[in-house]
Design a protein that fits this description.
Number of strands: 5
C-alpha cells in the first residue's frame, strides 16, 4: 500500500475509535478518546499538502470535520476535566451512522488503492529522464549532472519490433523508407500526487500488452 492509503486508513481508524467509544466508555470516566477527532482532522489537512485532494480523501476530510464538530463539546469537557455523565440518544444515532460511513470509506480506500505488484505481461519498457519544464520545454537528460524534472516511462507490446522513435516516423523496413507505418494507439497517463509511474505500472503494462503504446509521466 502507498503512504497516502496508509494515512487514509489511519484517519479512518482514529474516527472509528472516536465513534465507537460510546460502547466502552463508562460513566464517571474522562473522555480522553474524543481528542482523537482533532488529531484525525489535522492529519487529513497535512495529507492534502503532501498528496493533493481527490474525491475519496475529500470525503474522508468532510467526515473528519463533521466528527470533530460533533464532538467539540466533548473536547471542551475533557479540557475542563469534567467526567462523562451520559451520551445522548442523538449522539448514539449519529455515531452509528458515522461508523457505517467509516467502514464504507475504508472499503473504498482498500478497493481503489494503487497496486504496486507488476503483472506477468509481455511488454517492452523504456525510461527517459527529462530536464526542463512544461513552459520552457522538456529535453532528454544529457548528463548525470542535469536535474531530472520529469520521468517518462514508455511501454509497448513485446511483439512490436519497431524502434523507439518519434510517433509517425516509424518505417516498415529499410526497403520502404518512404512508407510511414501506422503507430499503435497512444495512451497518455499523467500521475497525480497520490501515486507514481512505478505504482501504476501494473495497469499501464496491461494496457500496453493489449496493443497500446502507453506513456506515463511523473512530474
Amino acid at each position: 500500500m502507498t503512504d497516502s492509503v496508509m494515512i487514509e486508513l489511519l484517519v479512518l481508524g482514529l474516527l472509528l475509535a472516536v465513534n465507537a467509544r460510546l460502547f466502552f466508555m463508562n460513566r464517571g470516566q474522562q473522555d480522553g478518546v474524543v481528542l482523537l477527532s482533532p488529531v484525525a482532522l489535522l492529519i487529513c489537512v497535512l495529507g492534502y499538502f503532501a498528496w493533493d485532494i481527490t474525491l475519496l480523501n475529500g470525503c474522508i476530510f468532510l467526515l473528519a470535520l463533521f466528527v470533530f464538530l460533533e464532538n467539540l463539546h466533548g473536547v471542551w469537557r475533557f479540557c475542563n476535566k469534567l467526567y462523562v455523565d451520559y451520551f445522548s440518544p442523538l449522539l448514539w444515532l449519529v455515531s452509528m451512522v458515522n461508523i457505517l460511513l467509516i467502514l464504507g470509506l475504508g472499503a473504498l480506500v482498500v478497493i481503489f488503492r494503487p497496486v504496486p505488484d507488476a503483472p506477468d505481461v509481455q511488454v517492452v519498457e523504456r525510461v527517459v529522464p527529462l530536464s526542463g519544464s512544461v513552459h520552457s520545454g522538456l529535453t532528454p537528460q544529457s548528463s548525470l549532472f542535469d536535474a531530472v524534472d520529469v520521468m517518462l516511462v514508455q511501454m509497448k507490446p513485446e511483439s512490436d519490433n519497431a524502434p523507439w522513435t518519434e510517433r509517425g516516423s516509424r518505417v516498415a523496413n529499410s526497403l520502404e523508407v518512404d512508407k510511414v507505418v501506422p503507430t499503435l494507439p497512444l495512451v497518455l497517463w499523467v500521475t497525480d500526487g497520490r501515486t507514481s509511474a512505478s505504482r501504476v505500472r501494473p495497469v499501464a503494462a496491461r494496457l500496453a500488452s493489449l496493443g497500446y503504446e502507453v506513456v506515463v509521466a511523473d512530474f
